[in-house]
Amino acid sequence: MISTVTKIAYCSDTQCKYRKDIDVQKLLINALDLLGLSEKIALVETECLISCLDGPSIMFLPGGRVYQVSTTENFTEILRDLITAAEHSTSFNYNISAKNTKIPHITDIDFFGRQELIVLRNRGHIDAESIEEYIAHDGYQALYKALAAMSPEEVIEEIKKSGLRGRGGAGFPTGRKWEEARKYTDSPKYVICNGDEGDPGAFMDRSIMESDPHAVLEGMIICGHATGSNQGYIYVRAEYPLAIQMLQNAIDTARDRGLLGRNIMGSGFDFDIKIYPGAGAFVCGESTALMYSIEGRRGMPRVKPPRSTESGLWGKPTCLNNVETFANVARIIINGSDWFKSIGTENSTGTKVFSLTGAVKNVGLVEVPMGTNLQTILFDIGGGIRGNGTFKAVQLGGPSGGCLTNEHLTIPVTFDSLQKEGAMMGSGGIVVMDDTNCMVDVARFFTQFCVDESCGKCVPCRTGLKVMLEILEKIIIGEGEPSDIEKLEFLANHVAKTAHCGLGQAAPNPVLSTLRYFRHEYEAHIYEKRCPALVCTNLIRFEVDEDKCKRCGVCARVCPANAITWAKGGIPVIDKEKCIKCKSCIRACKFRAIF
Amino acid sequence: MSGKELEDIKQSYIEDRKAEARQGMVNVVVHMGTCGISAGARDVLDALVTELGKLDLANIRLKTTGCAGLCSMEPMITIEPPDHSPVRYGNLNAKKAVEVFYSHALGGRIKTEYAISAGFERPQKRLAGE
Lengths: 595, 130
Hints:
The structure holds two protein chains of two kinds. Chain A folds into five domains: 7-88, 3-Layer(aba) Sandwich (Glutaredoxin), CATH 3.40.30.10; 131-341, NADH-ubiquinone oxidoreductase 51kDa subunit (Rossmann fold, 3-Layer(aba) Sandwich); 351-434, Roll (Ubiquitin-like (UB roll)), CATH 3.10.20; 439-527, NADH-ubiquinone oxidoreductase 51kDa subunit, iron-sulphur binding domain (de novo design (two linked rop proteins), Up-down Bundle); 541-595, Alpha-Beta Plaits (2-Layer Sandwich). Chain A is of the alpha/beta class. Chain A has helices at residues 14-17, 24-35, 75-88, 110-113, 131-136, 141-149, 152-162, 174-183, 204-211, 213-227, 241-256, 287-295, 323-335, 337-341, 374-381, 415-420, 439-453, 459-476, 484-498, 502-506, 509-517, 519-527, 554-558, 584-588, and strands at 7-11, 42-46, 57-61, 65-68, 190-195, 231-237, 272-278, 318-322, 351-358, 364-369, 391-396, 402-405, 429-434, 564-565, 573-574. In chain A, the strands form four sheets. A five-stranded mixed sheet of chain A has the order 10-9-13-11-12, with helices on both faces. A four-stranded mixed sheet of chain A has the order 2-1-3-4, with helices on one face. Chain A has a four-stranded parallel sheet with strand order 7-6-5-8, with helices on both faces. Chain B is an alpha+beta fold. Chain B has helices spanning 3-22, 34-39, 41-55, 94-106, and strands at 26-31, 60-65, 77-80, 87-89, 115-118. In chain B, helix 3 (41-55) crosses helix 4. The model of chain B is unreliable at 124-130 (pLDDT under 50). Chains A and B meet through strand 2, helix 4, helix 5, helix 6 and helix 9 of A and helix 1, helix 2, helix 3, strand 2 and helix 4 of B.
């Protein structure tokens, strides 16, 4: 008997391995021996192949036919028939086709189906390390078009007409920036990609750089062509080692293929890209500080003007854009500005990538047309609040952003509409908070972050934020005074008006926006010495509300300090001497009966 | 690289994939973004490499990509068989991934317990020429 079956895999899961009635290994060895196939067919132990209710399963390889051994009788004959059958089946033996199963199509799942992908179009689909896959998905076509058929002015005009605005947060029109950079004749000129994504809760740029690095490179090379630059830098924070690895690999393979370096695609245009890993300072995401950092100087923002397009890196004209902005460029060149303008709103065209995180069910990357409202992003795509909490607020734009509440859910998310409400789009981090988040604590967290990251150049940011943080900490431990709210507000407004750079000017936003929408929480902390969300440990009494308590005793069971005594059907009693204030009971109580 | 070379790379890539599909090539895609790795995608990949090492099959390609978008369901893998649309699995660990591998990639039975979705994520709605 000649066999093309080379291997038989059999289930060696505990359940099958220790079955008393069927020893599949022994059966197979015997049968193969009798058939004279022991030499030709190897046996392989595997994990469970299918649910082995009827008996251990065996799989014929190649091909993958599976058979469940339910009896030891006539096994040799059965095996012989099976091997013959496996040989005649040329392809896979699919028992169920994808159409007949109950698995929803990916576009029927709200998380995926309600998104519109431009920047993330290749996500989860192409191998970031394979330039061929990128090219096969229309990669570098835009570069070819721009170099072969478009003058730099035409490229700039196309980008201008598309209405593309900087995705890093400020929303400056990209085409205008490129035009500015082209205007200055000083050389060399530089193109910089800002991949120093520092906002807590933001991970869009990381994901783009990791999963589609060539899209970023292509945008940068086109920008080089448009602005007349021959050297690009990608500034990536060192906390993103995988992104750096993927980008470096992309740069190397693009160079090997003649897509970077001298005379790109025979056009006579030279351009090369270097990666500059940042050392992890938040302020280096500010464009001028970033350039200082590349120059080897201390990362501190400088006074503008002159703008970077006039005098940037090493005093030369520099065009700096965000990762996501560059990733949009190739699509605009290929599909045209009219196509891009047809997506989004009039003044905010195209899509925006958001990183959705916090108390939401579906954590992940969301790309939606500009103008989509928060309701859609949080509840349709995000799947609503995780667990049994209720929606409280959403922090947009990291520490520089502000929080928005229920009443803002229907506002279309664009650059301009968010500014009106005291928040900003920022780079696109969305942190969702439910009723277990204390807004004073949230304000303290972001202020602490900005204090840590302040470069120290100007007094309002260096000292003003510190004083704000001290007041917040005082409120949180229960020593807040009635005048503190006014003091905070005064300081916050002052810092916002007087700080030197974007970091300082935006740093009071979390305090100002939580004061605007959650003033009552501040008041509860100060006047009633109570934290409504039960977060601030000093303001929790650790007592049981007899009306709310359902007498289930779960709190007593989870208490690691044995501080809760509970008899069946009774109200638990917390021994405050023993209590270590770990809040396990509060987290465990579904009825929020401990306060 | 000229425009023609670009087109050649694209066409030969597409032809290669078609030829592979005719021979029954199954792509096993592990989503290895930072989010995936932190959730255990490296263990998943290692386990699959181990299983493939045991089997020495020519019709399975193990491939890695970046984040597939739904970070809270990582680690995820996608099985792309030659004759029907890809199926994405989520909330896996090494053991579950190996189960999916045997059941779907080798045996052709979709492991419905762990499957999230079938089909390709819609590319751009208004791409030129579509």
